[in-house]
Amino acid sequence: MQPKNIKSAYDFGIIAWETYAAAHPGPGPKWVKSLLAFVFPYTNQTLKGDYLPAKLFYGRDYHLVVTEKLNQIAKNSGLVNWQAAVDVDFLDEKLCAYLAGLGTYGDNNLLINKKYGTFWAIGIIMTDEVFDEYDSPSAALCDHCGKCQAACPTKALDGGFQKLKCLSYLSQYTSVNYPLYDQLQVTYYGCDLCQDACPFNDHPDYGMSELANDFKSVLTLDDLKRLEPNRYRKHFIEKSFHWIGYWRMLRNLAVIETNHGKMTEAELENLQKMHHEAWFDGHLEYLRGKIHGKH
Ligand code: B12
C-alpha cells in the first residue's frame, strides 16, 4: 500500500514492525507488519482555577477519542486487519512516534513536535499491511535549555526522568513519600509544569475540540464528597481520571486543599472516618501534621 492512501486529517508517520522491534527487542504481536503513528493535539492554554486536571484531561477521555479517530482512519483508508492502540502496555508509543519522524525526545521526557510542541497524544494503528515507503526519525529539537528541569518542583527531571518523583505519577498512584505531595499545588490529576515551561509549547492553540474542557473537569473536595464512593467510576466513565478511583482522588483533593491552607482539623477528622487503608491513613496523618505546622 502507498502511504498516500491513508486518509487522515492528523499528521502521521509509518514504520515497519522490524524497525520498532530492532529498537525495542521483545515479544510482539506476530501478525503486525507496520505501525502507523498519529499526532492528536490538545490545548496548550491553561484554564484558570485550582480544581482542574492537567490539560490532556480537560475533555473527554483521550483513550476513547483517539481510539475512535484511529478506527475511523483505518476504515476510511481501506485497511483490512488493524488494531488501534493508545496507552497500551506492550508498545512504547513515544518510540513508535519518534521512529516515524513525528517528534524527538525532550529533556522533559516527552516527544517534541516542531508545530505542536509536546501537547499531543500519540495514537497507533497496528496493521498487517506492508507499505511501499516508510518514515524515519527527524533531527533533534530539544536544545537542553534547562527550563523544564527548573520548573519541576520535585526535581523529577534532574539527571534523567525519575518516575517516582513525577507529580503526574504521584497524583495517579499511591506513594508514602508524602513530602513530595507538598508540591501538588495546581492540578489534581496529571501535571503540566515541565510542558508549560518548554519553549516549543509557545504556539497557537491547535487543540482538538473533542479534548477541550467540559463541565466535569472542575472538581472540588466538596463535589467529590457529595458523590457516593461506589458511583465515582461510573460518574466519570468518560473522563481519563476515572480509573484511579474515589480514594486516590479524595487524597489528591485533600492534599491540594491542605497545600492551599484551606484544610481544617474537623474536615480531616471527617475524611479519616470515611476510609481505612494504610496508604490513605498515613497520608491523612501527614496532612494533620502539616496543618499543625509539624512539617
Ligand atoms: C506509564 C506512562 C506514564 C507514567 C510513567 C512514565 C514512565 N516513563 O515511566 C506517568 C504516570 C509518570 C506518566 C506521566 C505522563 N505521561 Co505518560 N505514559 C505512560 C505510558 C502508558 C507508558 C510509558 C512507559 O512506561 N514507557 C517505557 C519507559 C521505559 O520509557 P521512557 O520513560 O520514555 O524511557 C525511555 C525514553 O526516555 C528513551 N529515550 C530517551 N531519550 C531518547 C533518545 C532517543 C534517540 C531514543 C531512541 C530513546 C530515548 O529511553 C528510555 C528507555 O527506553 C505511555 C504510553 C505508551 N504505551 O507508551 C504514556 C505517554 C508516554 N504519556 C504521555 C503523557 C502525555 C504524559 C503526561 C504529560 C500526562 C500528564 N499531563 O500528566 C505525563 C508526563 C510526565 C513526563 N514528564 O514524562 C504521552 C506522551 C506524548 C508525548 N508527546 O510524548 C504517552 C505516549 C501517552 C499517549 N498515548 O499519548 N506517563
Give a topology summary:
Elements: E1 12-16, H1 17-23, E2 34-41, H2 62-76, E3 82-85, H3 93-99, E4 104-105, E5 111-112, E6 120-127, H4 147-151, H5 167-172, H6 193-196, H7 221-226, H8 232-235, H9 245-259, H10 265-274, H11 278-291
Antiparallel strand pairs: 1-2, 2-6, 3-6, 4-5
Helix pairs in contact: 9-11, 10-11
Bound molecules: cobalamin.
Cobalamin binds next to helix 3, strand 6 and helix 5.
Features:
295 residues; two-stranded antiparallel ribbon; 10% strand; elongated; binds cobalamin
Overview of the molecule:
The chain is an alpha+beta fold and 295 residues long. It folds into 2 domains: 3-127, no CATH class; 150-291, no CATH class. It is 32% helix and 10% strand. The protein contains 11 helices and 6 strands. The protein has helices at residues 17-23, 62-76, 93-99, 147-151, 167-172, 193-196, 221-226, 232-235, 245-259, 265-274, 278-291; strands spanning 12-16, 34-41, 82-85, 104-105, 111-112, 120-127. The strands form 2 sheets. Strands 1-2-6-3 form a 4-stranded antiparallel sheet, sandwiched between helices. β4 (104-105) and β5 form a beta hairpin. α10 runs antiparallel to α11 (278-291). The longest helix has 15 residues, at 62-76. The mean pLDDT is 97. Residues 54, 56, 86-88, 91-94, 98, 105, 108-111, 118, 120-122, 161, 163, 166, 168-169, 172, 190-192, 194 line the site of cobalamin.
Average pLDDT works out at 97
Radius of gyration over C-alpha positions, nearest whole angstrom = 21 Å
Work out the helix count. Answer: 11
> Largest beta sheet: what is the strand line-up?
1-2-6-3
List segments where confidence is low: pLDDT < 50 over at least 5 consecutive residues.
Answer: none
Name the beta content range: 5-15%
Q: What is the total tally of β strands?
A: 6
Largest sheet: 4 strands, antiparallel
Q: How many structurally independent domains?
A: 2
Distance between the termini: 62 Å
User: Ligands in the structure?
Assistant: cobalamin
Percent helix, as a range, is: 25-40%
- Helix and strand content put the structural class at alpha+beta
Order of helices and strands: EHEHEHEEEHHHHHHHH
Query: Given the C-alpha coordinates, what overall shape results?
Result: elongated
